[in-house]
Amino acid sequence: MKNSVDIRTVLSVYEKIKTQGVPTTNGMKLEDVTCTENPDGYYVNLADNNVSLDINFHNTYHFHTANEDPEGIINQTTADFHNNNEAQIQEFLHKLMEIDKRY
């Protein structure tokens, strides 16, 4: 992935969603981003319908996209698959930055 994530900003967005969002069965939701955490606080997750971002202890992170398996995508080259996932991740990061600005 080409993504360079500013973990401080993402964690700031996480706190904003957690404190200003509405409770759902899956966590707290603000706009269309949901956040969850595990009970010990060593793992948090931010997600929308297409992308999920796991942030672990020591600020390591991993993105998951709606279509994780290139073998399951029909009529798409590997490059198209990766470009599509990259576009989804960039759109998700843009959403997080907009939430950070608005709240």
TrEMBL record:
Stored InterPro entries: DUF3081 (IPR021432)
Domain of life of the organism encoding this protein: Bacteria
Protein name per its UniProtKB record: DUF3081 domain-containing protein
Organism: Photobacterium marinum
